[in-house]
Specification:
Length: 185
């Protein structure tokens, strides 16, 4: 297991810690949540950089890096619903996109194809992370109620971007949906 893949796996643990911080009230929970999420976002950037420049991209990394991102952002978005910061319909649309893209990746893997994240998916992830960090900052400074309109519009933006990137991903990989299954298995 190379260092980029270890960093990818660490995000699963950070997602669990983030969910605890967003769900359980304890002194400093908001600041711990913010620090954990920022560290996780840094590992996302770092593992990709290390894979591309030093260690090489692996099939494991191509599959698990986007999944780790999805688990991390899902933990934050679900926590935001629980906190009453983000409407459930936005999170449902975002998570539906994530499940559909993961399903497409599994279909591709079954056909011997590894689908890496595309440029729109990377933009989507970056903007989701920026949004999540902004909401977590608002939580640290206890101004979530004052920022509720900005949070709603930011949530709408990342929801729309998620839908757009998913549609684009399916358009690029439509051949996987229309090709016949291998009958020699």
């Amino acid at each position: 297991m190379n260092p980029p893949n270890i960093l990818t796996l660490s995000r699963f643990g950070m997602a669990l810690l983030l969910m605890v911080c967003l769900s359980v009230s304890f002194p400093g929970a908001a600041i711990v949540a913010l620090i954990v999420f920022i560290l996780a976002a840094i590992t996302d950037a770092l593992d990709g950089h290390l894979a591309r420049t030093i260690y090489g991209c692996t099939d494991f990394g191509k599959l698990m890096d986007p999944l780790a991102d999805k688990v991390l952002t899902a933990a934050a978005f679900i926590g935001f619903v629980e906190m009453g910061v983000m409407p459930a319909w936005m999170v449902t649309l975002i998570l539906s996109r994530e499940f559909m893209v993961t399903g497409l990746r599994l279909l591709a893997a079954d056909k011997g194809v590894v689908l890496a994240a595309g440029p729109w998916g990377k933009h989507k992830t970056i903007w989701q992370m920026i949004f999540i960090i902004a909401v977590l900052f608002a939580g640290v400074f206890q101004c979530l109620e004052k920022c509720d309109t900005a949070i709603w519009w930011g949530g709408l933006f990342v929801t729309a971007l998620s839908i757009w990137s998913g549609w684009h991903y399916f358009q690029q990989n439509m051949n996987l949906l229309t090709s016949r299954a291998d009958t020699n298995k």
